[in-house]
Specification:
The protein has one helix at residues 2-27; strands at 44-46, 50-57, 61-70, 78-83, 88-91, 102-110, 116-126, 132-142. It is an alpha+beta fold. Strands 1-3-6-5 form a four-stranded antiparallel sheet, with no helix packed on it.
């Protein structure tokens, strides 16, 4: 019985050693093919990556236009442009931007009911060499003072003669 246990232990030891060597050898081989960089890929370059509205009054919508240029050698296609929250709305070109051409992303921030400082990001996904790009708007919304109105009760009006 001791010989059987000893033989089984030696077999398990050899099997474990063989497995460990195969695991080390196989982990040194790459799992994914190498990433090929397209030297002609579109390149999105913004004139500015951030815009500060500074201090704006609550109520009206604040809008800024981000201008970019395709500095690559192929057409640039913006697949999605998404704001960090629903109070910010981006509008972007759906047609391809050819090499050397400019495009514009119009970003609108709804100030209504949002007093205080804000920072919002807009993420641009495209076929550019940098597939995801982030631009930012910021500022501070000042509250509009409420008008003090006194309700007038009917029949309790003062006449100019009083």
């Amino acid at each position: 019985m001791k010989k059987i246990i000893l033989s089984a232990s030696i077999c398990l030891l050899f099997a474990a050693n063989s497995f460990a060597q195969n695991a080390t050898t196989s982990s040194s081989t790459p799992l994914a093919p190498p990433v090929v960089v397209n030297p002609n890929a579109p390149k999105i370059v913004f004139k500015e990556n951030e815009f500060d509205f500074k201090s704006i009054e609550e109520g009206p919508k604040a809008t800024h236009e981000f201008v970019f240029t395709n500095k690559g050698k192929e057409a640039l296609v913006l697949s999605n442009v998404k704001a960090s929250c629903g109070c910010t709305t981006p509008v972007w070109p759906k047609e391809p931007i050819l090499p050397g051409q400019e495009g514009k992303i119009l970003v609108t921030y709804n100030t209504s009911g949002r007093p205080g400082p804000f920072t919002k990001t807009i993420t641009i996904n495209s076929n550019a060499d940098e597939s995801s790009k982030v631009i930012t708007i910021r500022g501070s919304v000042t509250s509009v003072p409420e008008k003090n109105t006194v309700p007038v009760k009917e029949g309790n009006m003062l006449s100019p003669d009083n």
